[in-house]
Design brief:
The chain is of the alpha/beta class. It folds into two domains: 144 residues, Alpha-Beta Complex (Aspartate Aminotransferase, domain 1), CATH 3.90.1150.10; 222 residues, Type I PLP-dependent aspartate aminotransferase-like (Major domain) (Aspartate Aminotransferase, domain 2), CATH 3.40.640. The chain has 13 helices and twelve strands. Strands 2-8-7-6-5-3-4 form a seven-stranded mixed sheet, with helices on both faces. It is globular. The mean pLDDT is 96. The structure holds 4'-deoxy-4'-aminopyridoxal-5'-phosphate. 4'-deoxy-4'-aminopyridoxal-5'-phosphate (PMP) binds next to helix 5.
Length: 390
């Protein structure tokens, strides 16, 4: 029996630069000690106070179906958060609660793209993007964002690819580059969406992790609230990756349609998880900063190490839990560099190529191990790059 073309074609085939990642996993499986700087997962767990709130809710009986678009208290909490952070008036009718940001990305594209529509995304990109677009039957089209522009998409980068496109997916603060889009970049995104009549899907799951500059949501710009779907999540801001809770903020009629989609797919998010998220959001900035602090610290450590040499280039490290390093001076591809580093020093980093052609010759370092191990690994990486100089 044949499976659908859609599911068989989802990943697009090929290793896409993930060989090093799987090799590191095999080494760990074989008992080798590997410092993993690959995945974007905190090295702290969900705060005990959030787990207590979850337990109180569940043991108090909140274990049945929750209302499909989200509980009123969670939708209100998300709406209040967006209003406070962006100044754009947002109500619960603009909010759909989803099982994580990934599901929100899928649902958003499902809402705006028909089968065969072209959906734009910026390259370098978060690994699931092209598959998510293919998953809703859209045709992914990359907008290359060049290292010369610190991987920020310019208006003309986008315009060049926009003819006939239905949507544009952007992500700031950015995974994998760690770049925070400037006002000029966000204005270019908004202009392209307006001029080419595209929906904007704005992935803002790292909005609490900003080290330099300011996070600007495209939804705040003129004429954008009616064409923007903001994807948010508790995963990164509150170290709740395993709780699977996120949201879409969108115009009311879009949310009404997303409600139908949720009814026929996820049937909502557990009420006790939503109660825990409401508690966490109620703790305000203090808790968000506590979760972001280790990355802020390690980014400073990394910047100091890189400032003392001129072999490895650092892409402006402005936000999110990653540093993108330019290793082109070694003459190696990101993939070869990462592979050799793993063999020689048992340090696993992600080749830039696994995030798209634009990040070739780079490696992404996740700042997800404790400070001294992070510092030692980065020093080793820099020393290794020096040895490889042609
Ligand atoms: N967007 C980006 C850019 C991400 O890096 C991630 C997770 N690494 C997600 C979305 C999805 O996160 P989650 O489903 O855990 O909310």
């Amino acid at each position: 029996m044949d499976l659908s073309n859609r599911i068989q074609g989802l990943t697009g085939g090929g290793s896409d630069g993930w060989d090093v990642f799987y090799k590191a996993r095999r080494m760990i499986g074989a008992g080798v000690s590997v410092t993993e700087l690959t995945q974007g997962e905190h090295d702290i767990r969900t705060d005990q106070s959030i787990l207590d709130a979850m337990y109180r809710s569940a043991s108090g009986g909140n274990t049945g179906y929750a209302t499909v678009p989200g509980t009123n208290s969670m939708r209100d909490a998300v709406a209040a958060r967006l209003t406070a952070r962006t100044g754009v008036h947002t109500t619960r009718d603009n909010v759909l609660v989803t099982p994580g940001g990934q599901s929100a990305l899928f649902a958003s594209h499902h809402a705006v793209c028909d089968e065969g529509d072209v959906a734009l995304y910026c390259d370098p990109y978060y690994a699931t993007y092209p598959g998510t677009l293919r998953g809703v039957g859209a045709i992914p089209r990359a907008v290359p964002c060049l290292p010369e522009n610190a991987f920020q998409p310019t208006f003309s980068d986008i315009a060049e690819k926009s003819a006939g496109a239905k949507s544009l997916l952007v992500n700031t603060p950015n995974n994998p580059t760690g770049v925070v889009y400037s006002r000029e970049t966000v204005e270019g995104i908004a202009r392209a969406c307006r001029e080419y009549d595209m929906w904007c899907i704005s992935d803002e799951v790292y909005d609490t992790q900003v080290w330099d500059g300011t996070h600007i949501s495209p939804r705040t710009l003129d004429g954008m609230a009616e064409r923007t779907l903001v994807v948010g999540s508790m995963s990164k801001s509150h170290a709740m990756t395993g709780s699977r809770i996120g949201w879409i903020v969108a115009p009311e009629d879009v949310v009404e349609n997303l409600f139908n989609l949720a009814t026929h797919t996820t049937y909502g998010v557990p009420g006790y998880i939503q109660d825990a998220a409401v508690f966490a959001l109620g703790e305000g900035l203090a808790l968000e900063e506590k979760v972001a602090e280790p990355f802020r610290r390690r980014r400073a450590i990394g910047q100091n190490i890189l400032a003392e040499q001129n072999v490895v280039g650092l892409v402006p490290s402005e936000g999110a839990m990653y540093m993108m390093l330019d290793v082109r001076s070694t003459g190696l591809s990101g993939e070869d560099f990462a592979d050799k580093l793993l063999d020689a020093h048992h340090i696993a980093v992600m080749p830039g190529e696994s995030f798209g052609a634009s990040a070739a010759g780079h490696v992404r370092v996740a700042m997800t191990v404790e400070d001294s191990a992070f510092e030692a690994s980065l020093k080793t990486l820099v020393g290794f790059a020096k040895e490889l100089q042609p």
